Amino acid sequence: MTTEEHVELAGELLTLVHRRIVDPLEILLGSADLVGPVGDRLRIESEVWAAQLLGPDQALAVRACARLIAALFPGDAVFDPPEDWWGTAFGRVVARRVGHPGRDSVTFAVAGAMLGITRQGVHDLVKRAKLDRHPDGGVTTTSVHARLNQAG
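The structure assignment produced for this chain is given below.
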C-alpha cells in the first residue's frame, strides 16, 4: 500500500459516505448541526477503513469491503455496479480483495473494467487461457480475481 493509494481511497470513502448517508440524514433532520459530529467521526473512520482495505489482513479487508458495500449500496438485488465503478479507488480494492461479490461470472466488458484493460484485452487473455470462460458466457470472477492478485 502506498500513501497515495491510502489518501485517494480514504478521500473517496469519505465522499461516498457523506453523499449516501450523511447528506440525506442532514436533509431529513433539517440541521447540519445535528450531523456535524458524525462527519467529524467519519473523517477518522475513512482513514481506518482505507488502512483495513489496503492492509495485509485479507480477512479484515474482506469484512470491511462487505460492510461498506452493504451500507453504501443497499438493496435487495445482487450488488452490480456500473462498469466505470471498477475504475474508482474503492472499486479497484474490492476487485483485488473479493472480486465481484455475488457473481460467478461477468461480461468481458466488466472483466476488462475490473482489470483495467479493454474488452479486447480480456478476449486475448481468454484465448491464451489466462482467464477462464464461464460456461454460461462471460468470464469467471474467480479467474479475474486471481489475475488481479498474481505476483509480479
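Interim note for the steering committee: Residues 1-77 form one domain. The chain has seven helices and two strands.
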